[in-house]
Predict the structure.
Amino acid sequence: MTQLSTKTPVVLLIYKRPSTTEKVFQAIREAAPEKLLIVANAPRPDNKNEKELCMAARSIVNRVDWDCEVLQNYADSYLSCKQRITSGLDWVFDNVDEAIILEDDCVPHPSFFRYCHELLDYYRHDERVMTIAGTHYQVPRRSPQDSYFFSRYNMFWGWATWRRAWKLFDLDMTSWPIVCKTNRLQDILEDRRAVQHWQKEFQKVYDGYDTWDWQWVLSMWLQSGLTIVPNTNLVSNIGFGLDSAHTQDVYDWRASMPLKSMSFPLTHPDFILQDVKADFMIQKKYYERVAMHGRGLERVRRKIWRAKKIFEESRTLSHQPLHELILRVLSE
């Protein structure tokens, strides 16, 4: 094993996917961090198969064979996605001042660790910068010669942050009612369609949708926080599929994006300013396009479900051919 050792603590969030956990753990093993913090969820009650998968994932991360301090935060009982990730990250930042964070389906390029380590140090005391992302969605940038740019959007498939930033995280979105009432999103986004998109997303989460990341987005926006986005894609999400909580479409264009190395030494931007043009494309290409695609898939699923019901009912009907029944449903 090549020892590239990173001094920055690395966090690995795991659950029930040993096949993807194996690949992410191998990437971490090659980076050989001096401190590894593992956050694991527990299986749902009375789910034997899930229990076996959780145990298999945990056995993988127990194979640390380099000089490393390992800290574990394993749930005793099943927690929702929102509860497990946020309680796990609260624990992480009770123990360390800064960290690189990977979920069990996010495979990083080897250069991702150095990129995060250097930027965590470079912006350690600059409270304008709140996260460092590893994902890049191939959008045009104002200064393409720079190693990274600044965005309002924080991306979660491999990222890094500091305790000073995470302490501003508001899981319960306590500010959302006043933000909504006073139309503060218009002040932040300055685009009607973007405001409409995020109004729906934030309200859905405020009403109880099980996630944690949109709360982090809002928490950053209310502090005018910036995210560092690399000029090349450093993390690939290999977890798209039916066993994923939120990324189930294997044909999604974001699935398993190719990796490319970051060049060093890093070229820092001249100004710490949001790249508005890049963010406009991220909003359109990533958030709005993905949301529209998701709504389309949901409509197809509903039509298939109705067709299945009619197929079952048609067994007792003889007056109308089955294909006519299904065509009627699909045209609704």
